[in-house]
Amino acid sequence: MPKMKSHSGAKKRFKKSSTGKLRGRAAYSSHILEKKSPKRKRNMRNPVPIASADQPRVRKLLAGGKK
């Protein structure tokens, strides 16, 4: 049987830290930026933790078939 592949889209969007935490891009950071404050936009540059409700789904996509 061939190996299961990781989800290509998930690989590009999420990173797993060495301690196992999932990080991704901040929401609301791509458009309609004129009305958002510089401080808010600056904070959106940094990766943010993935919500606990979404973590099992993201882990499954990154694992390539492993649970």
- Largest sheet report: 3 strands, antiparallel
User: How is the largest sheet built, in terms of strand order?
Assistant: 1-2-3
Number of helices, where a helix is a run of at least 4 consecutive DSSP H or I residues: 3
The secondary-structure element order is HEEHEH
Instruction: Give the N-terminus to C-terminus distance in angstroms.
Output: 18 Å
Uncertain stretches of 5 or more adjacent residues: none
Rg, alpha carbons: 15 Å
Decide which structural class fits the backbone.
Answer: alpha+beta
Describe this structure in words.
- By secondary structure, the protein is of the alpha+beta class.
- The chain has a domain at 36-67.
- It contains three helices and three strands.
- The protein has helices spanning 8-13, 38-44, 55-63; strands spanning 14-16, 22-24, 48-49.
- A three-stranded antiparallel beta sheet has the order 1-2-3.
- The longest helix is centred in the last third of the chain and has 9 residues, at 55-63.
- The mean pLDDT is 93.
